[in-house]
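User: Fold both of these, please.

Assistant: Here is the first one.
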Amino acid sequence: MADLICASSLSRAPELISECGADAGAMLAAVRIDPAVVGLYDRFVPFTALSALLGRCAEQLGVPDFALRLAGRQDPDILGPVAIAARNAETIGDALARVTEYAHVYSPAIRADLHIGPAEVAYEFGTVLQRLPYRPHVVELALGVTLSTFKMLGGADFHPSKVAFTHQPISGRRTYTDYFGCTVEFGAPANVLVFPRGLMRRRLPAFDSLAQDIAIRFMTGRDRRTAFADAVSELIVRSLPAGAAGLDDIARLLMMHPRAVQRELACTGTTFEDLVDDARRDLTTTLLADRNVSLSAVARQIGYSEQSTLTRSCHRWFGMSALAKRRELARIDRPGARPRT
């Protein structure tokens, strides 16, 4: 599935890298992450790039627990609408159900499950990516943020009953027990955070059904595949003015093979070419509505080298020339007024 995660997952990473004595910009550039998107909720970065950054920082900076240190600095609100839905749930059980149900909105690569037993519940974290560099580091970041989320819901004094990792310890075992405040196992069948089942019934003080409903409405329908197509569309729109919106260009930004991008989009019933065409049409409509943007500039902004190509596309999209579409948009914007040409 999609190799993406919300750029808010990188919150506080540059500061921590700098405090460890390294150049944050250089570390981000090494894994091809744009520093300008760090911390943003409406931008995606490759999940593999986040994982590679964590592993490189741990190795090159001599800080094996870099991922846990970063998790300790991050607020659960990096989860965006997922956190809003959880924070405003009626009970902790309802909150965790929202987290597992909508984790894909934060990252299409995440697989989260709740295993409810007679006395205990296990929150399991995993990814759908088969090849992931420095996997143990991103797993430790994820369970570290999960602990922060539990503390947000259950109170600052919350401690899990047990935490288990499938990998062997990266840091000293004392680092893990100090961080999680419980027994930590390694070489386990799954990456889990275990807690008493009774916690699921605890009511949350900030229950707000309206806020939760708004967050859920925003997330509903945004499955892993849709999120991937949305992210690709966003990259296309940002890359069109620079003339770098080709399949190879976008695949490079996603750190994916071009054929993999095409396969993912095919699962949604669309193609890369369709997304590019849709992005050009929408951007053209926006630009034509601005009378200060010349038609030649419109063509350049949507990645066309010739204005004649814009003319042919406008006839295909709108059934009229670019100039006629501009006049139509002017009439819609100023009903009754006579637009300038």
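And the second sequence with its predicted structure:
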Amino acid sequence: MQQQWSARADAAEDAVVTRHLKRLWGLPRTGLGVVGWPSVRRERCFFAWHYWWQAHLLECVVDAADRDPTPRRRRRTAKIVRAHRIRNITGWTNHYYDDMAWLGIALERAQRSQNLDLRSAIGDLESQLFDAWAPESGGGIPWRTRSDFYNAPANGPAAILLTRTGRLWRARAMSDWVDDNLRDPGTGLILDGIRFPSGRAVHTGILDRAVYTYCQGVVLGVETELALRLDESRHRRRVHALVDAVDKHLTEDGVIVTGGGGDGGLFNGILARYLAFVAARLPGDDDSDQRARRVAAQIVLDSAEAAWENRLEVEAQPLFGCDWARPARLPGLGGSVSTFSGGTVRSSAVAERDLSVQLSGWMLMEAAYVAAGSLDRMRAAPRLP
């Protein structure tokens, strides 16, 4: 089964590279993702580039290189890293802690698996995230600098990075903060965030009860990372409960529900990535551990099968839909294009036009490769008496 998903991941990679990956301003040894296809001039010139989308492009490239290492993939990784630094102009950081966390995760993986020396970049990002911890203000870390909004999309990926760089005590504190403040007792799902307006007591924070798939993904990621490193069973228990909550509330016929386009185009792919991570890496051998790994893998594979069946083929390359359970739509230049507004990238008129949606499809194919291997190992493992 893994070989089939490897071939599909290759096809998704080829489609994104062909349609979206271009030199930055014609500079040698660079590559960034054009954020729409078909593209308009400001996208081709990288006036619009969306920092955190590029971080996920880099992580997808690392996924492919981990699955099947080649010199071309290693060179591609280095080109994207170089282009990101140049396009960001002022350094590696920006004002959004979630953005910086995503890039930090991608760079740490690139350094670890592709033997690139990115210590300085990772250190810059790690220190920003570590220093943003603000329990006196209610956090957690905020969504962005000078913000009173503390959310899962910042704390989750920041904690994943800090776990991987050895700051376990802070990552553990972040995971506990999310569980204490953002877990919905009714559904077991992770809510978006909590606001602590100036002048109000910390205990009177205002919850944003929106539920997004990627919030579940990042919490699954950090809890699995901590379960691997700490002898504390609460992290495994949280994974068990959250996998079940995702299966119950965020899938339809086994397929992860739609996230739309714009920034939302990445949400489902992120959940799939970390469900596959649970399937492959969650430790423990009791029935609850095995069930969590099996359910996580099956959600990924059911979603990937649906997305593949509902893809379009454009010049013999896949184009994935923003809703994996429905046929993809062919984008054109007749409608509106994605725009950045209020800290968020809004969807193009046809969401399939957005790089985020296509990256999510690629992410899903890579996750399916991992999940399929995990299921194969589970089926082959001898049952304990």
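The first helix runs from residue 2 to 20.
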